[in-house]
Amino acid sequence: GKTTVLEMVVSACRAAGWLTLYLPDPRTFTHEGIQVRPGRHEDRNLYDQPELVLPFLKNFYILHQEQLRKVVCKTDGAKERGETMLDLVEHGIRKATDCGVVVRDVREEMKLATEVPTLVAVDDLEALYTKTAYGFEGVDLWPSNLVFPRVFQNFSALGLNETARLANGFVVAASPSKYGNARGVHGERLDVTRHAFPMNRLSAEQTGHFVRDHLANVKTDRTAAGKGRGAGAWGGVSDKDIARVHMMSGGVPKSILKEAAFLPYDKGMSMHAPGGSFATKDRIKARRKSMAEQEE
Fold first, then answer.
1. What is the DSSP string of 120-137?
2. pLDDT tops 50 at residue 60
3. Which segments of the chain does DSSP mark as H helices, in order?
4. Are 129 and 185 in contact (CB under 8 A)?
5. Tens digit of pLDDT for each residue in 108-136?
6. 206-242 pLDDT, tens per residue?
7. How many CA atoms lie within 13 A of 277 on its CB side?
8. Which residues, 6+ apart, have CB-to-CB distance to 194 below 8 Å?
């Protein structure tokens, strides 16, 4: 239930007017992009991913214009690009080659902002500390070599980095275990045990409440919910359905939504908008498929 809880925190903070930087799927940036480009940074070992970062920045802008307008830029780098954070983000959108630098500046400004409450949230934290799918000129790249993932590397072997703390907010993250899934890769670099709050899987009874509440909230019609059955034949979720869903998902809410074939997953989860739009991921996959077909 870690992802569900994290999404609830993000949704609650956004509803309350917090400026929220949310990364729901780090692997989009560490494994699923098309390419990396040498960044325009003093550190020559940093690389940009404008085709992924720009959509993220645009969605961040759409979600938080009101809050961004209130925050005055305080760092020298951000001041060069705008008076307020709204100006800063607009600069990154207009000039795609600078979007990685702008996201880095956004994180620094959120650290200092006092005009509005702030939240930095990341799911699957462990993905930010394992080797990426990228390489450049024969050298394997790590998330710390990519400007965007580096922004969310707020933890280390000592826990939350003091330099990552927010003056008027919180940093939250979710991970499936003590060190995440990548055992033996970053165990010495990441330790969140002192901050951890363990989440228990749902029981069969809780699963039933979860599924029935979900169906009620999205007002699922009989046709959408009755997979493989006539529209007039479906009489609601049965105990047998709940038992099957619980067995398939292992009591993990997000898996319940994905695996239960009769639930409209996309419709139900649309309320949890990420900090950036990941429709880009689908476009990338379509582009790869098109390129492969052309080569054939």
1. EEESSGGGGGS--S-EET
2. yes
3. 2-15, 27-31, 50-70, 76-79, 85-94, 99-112, 147-151, 204-217, 222-225, 239-249, 253-259, 265-269, 279-295
4. yes
5. 999 999 999 999 999 988 888 888 888 88
6. 888 877 776 666 554 444 444 444 444 456 677 777 7
7. 14
8. 159
